[in-house]
Amino acid sequence: MILWRQLQRESFTALDKVALFLELDPENKAKLLSHKKFPLLLPKRLAAKIKKNDLKGPIAKQFLPVLEETFLQEGFVSDPVEDGSFRKTGKLLQKYQGRALILSTSVCAMHCRFCFRQNFAYEKEKLGFEEELAYLKEDTSIHEVILSGGDPLSLSDEALKALFVSLNELEHIRLVRFHSRFPIGIPERITEEFLEALTSCKKQIFFMLHVNHSEELDDDHFRTFKKIQRLGIPILTQTVLLKDVNDDKESLKTLFLLLVSHGLIPYYINHLDQVQGAGHFMVSKEKGLALLEELRSELPGYALPTFVEEAPHQPSKLVIR
Ligand code: SF4
């Protein structure tokens, strides 16, 4: 546990330090935004994959705050999926029938500049999940609990185990799904203790990993994912379609092939949620559809994720393709 906590602490959080590390010239440095509201958070492992003095690569684009974030764009709002309106307790959202989402923590391993939850007012006062568990106990129509955040892997193994002990007691809960991006930045988080915590959960676990580009991944990740897969936990992935990050056929094809060749299933590709400050990441649905259509003839069906968007107050995500 000490190692990953330490790695988390050692991530870049200061613009000057990351600019120095990336050897940015004054012209590139001037493109960065000293952003107070949603601060820079970049694990060193990811920073090391950015080409020196280059802000154009897929990792630099996703994690470095730039001036474009201050441009106002019509339709881009603070809470694009209206998370606030689905709050049932301080840390629980229920959007869809049969499923409930626990905002297990506000902390992530990295800050993705396009994050739709970057303005969310997380409940930080109360420790534990007493109210959330009471809600789950009461509503026996809920069969799946989604652990989201922030990132549920920011919780300690002890906190996760305690949550599993409580969930194990609720017979109607059959599935536990992790929504996580943490191991992309800090694969060391998948410790023996974490794996042991997973085995203490008596429900079927699914792991939904957020990954957007093949450059985020290396052999360490796949060795780590294997440890989760060996526990009988399927790893599905979700990808956000992002301008100048992965909105070209080769980037998507390389990513999806890499994932399936390690037994990870590309499950969703998400149309961007229109959060304020992320307008420069927008890719049209038409372009997304055309890209997926091209890929259909080049990849097996199981390597092609479903193209979806989230629209508030709908019974499920909307399938674009
Ligand atoms: S890891 Fe997920 S929750 Fe955290 S900033 Fe990135 S997209 Fe948002």
Written account of the structure:
With 321 residues, this protein is α/β, with parallel strands linked by helices. The chain has two domains: 69 residues, no CATH class; 237 residues, Aldolase class I (TIM Barrel), CATH 3.20.20.70. Helices cover 31% and strands 14% of the residues. β9 and β10 form a beta hairpin. The radius of gyration is 19 Å and the shape is globular. The N and C termini lie far apart (41 Å). The structure holds iron/sulfur cluster. Iron/sulfur cluster binds next to loops.
Helix share bin: 25-40%
Tally of contiguous helical segments? 12
Count the domains. 2
Which strands sit side by side, in order, in the main sheet?
A: 1-2-3-4-5-6-7-8-9-10
Question: Overall mean pLDDT score?
Answer: 96
Question: What class do helices, strands and sheet pairing give?
Answer: alpha/beta
CATH architecture identity of the largest domain: Alpha-Beta Barrel
| CATH homologous superfamily annotation of the largest domain | Aldolase class I
The distinct bound ligands, ions and cofactors come out as:
iron/sulfur cluster
The helix-strand sequence is: HHHHHEEEHEHEHHEHEHEHEE
Beta-strand proportion = 5-15%
- Tell me the major beta sheet: 10 strands, mixed
Distance between the termini: 41 Å
How does the overall form come out from the CA principal axes?
globular
**Backbone CA Rg:** 19 Å
Counted beta strands: 10
